[in-house]
Amino acid sequence: MGIACARHGCFAPNGIVDLFRGEQQKNMDWAFLQSLQTTNVEVSQSATLLYVIICQYITYLLEHIAHLRPEGLDIDAAIGLFHVHGHKAECLFRYATSFIPGAGVVAGEILESLWSTLNSITPAMRTATLAHRAELLDDHATDSNFKKWLRLGILFLRTCFVWYS
Q1: Which residues contact 9 (CB under 8 A, 6 or more apart)?
Q2: CB neighbours (10 Å) of residue 51?
Q3: How far from the centroid of its chain's Cα atoms is residue 47's Cα?
Q4: Cα→Cα distances 130→2, 17, 18, 73, 125, Å
Q5: Side-chain-facing half-sphere of 129: CA atoms under 13 Å
Q6: For residues 41 and 104, what is the distance between their CA atoms, to the nearest angstrom?
Q7: 60-98 per-position pLDDT tens digit
Q8: Which end of the chain has a smaller Cβ tally under 10 Å, C or N?
Q9: Residue 44: how many CB atoms within 10 A of its CB?
């Protein structure tokens, strides 16, 4: 599982975790708390957590991380626009990003495209130890973030400066 910015598609530091047997959510809880800390989310901001099964996950998340969550931080729950239509009708109006104030125009499916680039390293990860697997994922996530920053810089130069020849 992974945590990334829904708007920009940058992986959060310490945001990629493995699921143990039975898909225990405690690793996801840890990744969410670590991403809040490493990305310097302020209490005056609110965090929106987009997850395919957020309607089930959010019921216990706030209880599990209550003693670790930054005091006063509001956590909004959302489901990506592609997956929300496979849920019950009440999930659409409760968890679709289209109906969450302040969410902006976000599809919430950025991780799907980010995983597709990581699929090229899966053959190498199959035979790797857990430590090597974590290093491979970290290296490729960092590389993905670096490439995004380069592209953002080029986009900034194109939009902010007029070039004369």
Answers
A1: 110, 113, 114, 144, 148
A2: 23
A3: 11
A4: 16, 11, 10, 33, 9
A5: 2
A6: 18
A7: 888 888 888 888 888 888 888 888 888 888 888 888 888
A8: C
A9: 8
Location of structure tokens 């809880």? 29
**Maximal C-alpha separation, the chain:** 62
Q: How far is CA 38 from the centre of its chain?
A: 13
| Whole-number Cα distances in Å, 97 to 118, 138, 161 | 26, 29, 34
Q: Return the SS3 of 96.
A: strand
Q: What is the pTM of this model?
A: 0.79
Q: 99 is written with which tokens?
A: 């109906």
d(CA 81, CA 79): 6
**Residue with the two structure tokens 């994922």:** 137
At residue 100's C-alpha, the angle toward residues 2 and 75, to 5°, is 50
